[in-house]
Amino acid sequence: MSYRPTIGLEIHAELSTRTKMFCACANDPEEREPNVNICPVCLAHPGTLPTINEEAVRHVLRVGQALGGTLADFTEFDRKSYFYPDIPKGYQISQYEHPLVAGGFLNGIAVTRIHLEEDTARSSHAEGESLVDFNRAGVPLMELVTEPDIQDAKTASDFAKELQLLLRTLGASHANLEKGEMRVEANVSVSKTDTYGTKVEVKNLNSFRSVERAILYEIDRQVAALENGEVIVQETRGWDESAQKTFRQRSKEGSADYRYFPEPDLPKLRISTIPGLSKEEIARSLPELPWARRSRYESLGLSAADAAYLSSTIERGVFFDKAAAIAGNDTALLKLATNYIISDVGGWYAKRDVAEFDTLTPDAFIALIRMAKDGEISSRGAKDALAVLLEEGGEPTEIVQRLGLAQVSDKESIRAAVLAVLEEHAGPASEYKAGKETALQFLVGQAMKATKGAGNPAVIREVLVEELS
Q: H-helix or E-strand containing 430?
């Protein structure tokens, strides 16, 4: 019997609030000067008292509502004790027995809980010294814990991607992994039986690719160890991106090690008594969710793959919706526009360090695609004009005229080019007359070259058939 992996995820996301979790300091992830956004509260000076950030509570409740979880009515904060330089109090204010959200599902994976806590300071180590920047200390941090329902690395990565999209859709977090705004930890075990193996936690996963590779590596490491008669130790391991392997950091603590107890300096909350946080108001505040948007796109006739691509970022979805509104009931135009967004527009932005759809307006885009659909420009001309539109902006009609991309559909103008092609390529002309259909396509291509891509291929084909009849 082969080994079966069991994977659970713990995902932290820094919430997008104006101030920190328990004080009035700015929550500014873009601040580069160390120790600017600090005060006696987030530095844990004696005698200071924390105050709960209501906006952070609302963000977590909205995430829980989106996932179909049970929103708490009663909740409280707890002290989670551990000693490290990035925790000046000697404890972190978190939640233990009464999280804000219990249960829910995302991508078919069961969610155990979602709770709220404060982030730690940021430590750096170089040239024999260690420095601590407290700008991040006290930033609101959402932690989502899944059930151990995941059996493979890709499913784990897909879950994290879907959560990132949800957080951005709700405006709860920017959730950039490369900036540390979203951090993924994987609990991995393997077993040949229905009994779970020993769980190992893997940290430092700062990209979706790292999530997949670290889980795959850890599965292979544990299987190899068990096959060699070794015992898997419950521990925390880091992920070395350059070496592409996990490494031991420390033994894994249990809940008893943290000595949780209710935070005495914060009030216990009855959520239903707080204006704006009732379950009904939270539900009404939700926008269209990613899975609903994908379903709506498929109802427009898009394939599942195209719908997934267009809804995979906020910017794509917003742009497509505006473009679809301009296209109206013209399904052929919308289908053509979709093809250009996925291939040409998406490809252009992927190769440049520019925010998606910052340089293109839906009005100009649809105007250009309409010209291609109506035969005013060829597909080649549309690609060339679109590249200019993306790079420089402007009006599609002016760009087409300036670059000489207007498609020629006048039969008599095209006939001169066709006659020249037939004179030059008498062999293929004879082959077509003899019944070889593929020869006609060759002649169409030659006529397109002769018209420098401006000739309407449908009209060229029509004139060729007339001349060869």
A: helix 426-433
Supply the DSSP symbol for 436: -
Residue of 212, 122, 109 lying closest to 166 (CA atoms) = 109
Mean pLDDT by 10 residues, the chain (469 residues): 93 98 96 96 95 98 98 97 88 96 98 97 88 96 98 98 98 95 97 94 94 97 96 95 93 73 96 95 97 96 95 94 95 95 94 89 97 88 93 93 81 82 83 81 83 78 82
Residue type, 88: P
> What kind and span of H or E run contains 202?
strand 200-205
Helices (H) and strands (E) in the chain, counts: 16, 17
Secondary-structure breakdown of the chain: helix, strand, coil percentages, each rounded to the nearest 5: 40, 20, 40
If we measure between CA atoms, which residue out of 119, 113, 115, 114 comes closest to residue 92? 119
Q: What is the DSSP letter of 408?
A: B
Amino acid present at 53: N
Q: Are strands 78-81 and 182-191 parallel, antiparallel or unpaired?
A: unpaired
